[in-house]
Amino acid sequence: MKGSLLRRAVVAVVASTAALVSLSPSASASTDTTGSASFTGDPGDWVTQGLSYKYNTDAGDSLRASGSENNNYVRVNIDGANGDWWSVEFAAPQGQQLTVGTYTDAQRYPFQPSTAPGLDYSGNGRGCNQLGGTFTIEAIEFGPRGYVERLDATFEQHCEFATAAARGEVHVLNPPPPAQLSLDIAVSTSGTASSLNGKATINGTVDCSAPVRIHLSGRVTQVKNNVLIRGDYATAVDCVPGAGAPWTAVADPTGTTPFQRGLVEVTTHGYAIDPHYGNAVEIDKTTVVRLERAAA
Fold first, then answer.
1. pLDDT value, residue 17
2. Which domain holds residue 101?
3. Where is the signal peptide (predicted)?
């Protein structure tokens, strides 16, 4: 009895650790998922305890699907309105995309050999140390960056390669994927060099395809009388699509020589976090700017 309890505790801990590891390749998950899931198990199956479970978003249950950017992997999280929680993970062999078809000889994701497909059904505090199984992807549609627009899949899993099996199916339907964030930066070709503090002021506008906060940074470089003058700047601006948000930044020369009238090279780096997919979107610009003298 003590050995059995210890085994179950170890299984639960390892399964929990695997769930944390398996989150890493995932991209975005939609909050507007509609779908259903059902699971059943043979007597003696550790994960299902030999019971059956059904979930549907129409009944208040929650399903969330996410995938890897290379379309190799999909994870579905199920949170039942009754407090149940499960996850099901499907992966094609390394280097392959997950497509419609039946995958045999699957082993526990993400610890399967590179040539084998991956599978892991766990939850409610129970999971497998090792497993063998089969799954069928009946329909799958990916959007950008691992967005899962549709998934229909069935599986059979044998925890610890036992004869008893857990079986299940998941059906997920999301809205069409949002467009990825795009950015544009414009730097004005005219700026100012302060005669009081030697700083250079530059300005411009930013454009975006979705409301975001854009962070700008860069360097102003000038050569005067064989002296190299440099100064860095940074600022941030809230952008709304179609509005062309203005920005202004000040570069402080790093040495004792101030910025002066004349041409400078301005490098600008912008980045923002895509509000739909959570990735950083970046853009770089190099612009020649003419500085005019300013009193301040």
1. 35
2. 2-173
3. 1-29
